[in-house]
Design goal:
Elements: H1 32-48, H2 50-65, H3 71-102
Helix pairs in contact: 1-2, 1-3, 2-3
Length: about 100
């Protein structure tokens, strides 16, 4: 268990003054909370809002690949992916609630 993916203490620290994308560590790996949130939000978005959910996954992947080379671009891409997941999932939940209430 000395692998950096399992031990956050071994992950290199980000350069001071740069904030990391939400749910990502300095090495481009996702945090445990980030993994759980991305799985839930991504699954709901892909099954109920397919094109937008897929776009969110692609943007997140692009951001994770750019964390070490272009942190600002990575932060913007990951932020857009989280925004896509949040908006689509809120719309889906509201539509389900309205559908259940209207019966």
């Amino acid at each position: 268990m000395g692998d950096a993916a399992y031990n956050p203490l071994e992950v290199p620290a980000a350069v001071s003054g740069q904030s990391l994308p939400l749910g990502l560590r300095a090495d481009g790996e996702m945090t445990r909370k980030g993994i759980a949130c991305a799985f839930i939000l991504g699954t709901v978005a892909v099954f109920f809002a397919f094109p937008l959910g897929l776009l969110g996954i692609v943007l997140s992947n692009m951001g994770m690949n750019r964390v070490s080379t272009k942190p600002e671009t990575a932060r913007k891409l990951v932020a857009w992916s989280w925004a896509i997941f949040a908006v689509t999932d809120c719309i889906i939940v509201l539509a389900i609630v309205v559908g259940v209430i209207s019966r």
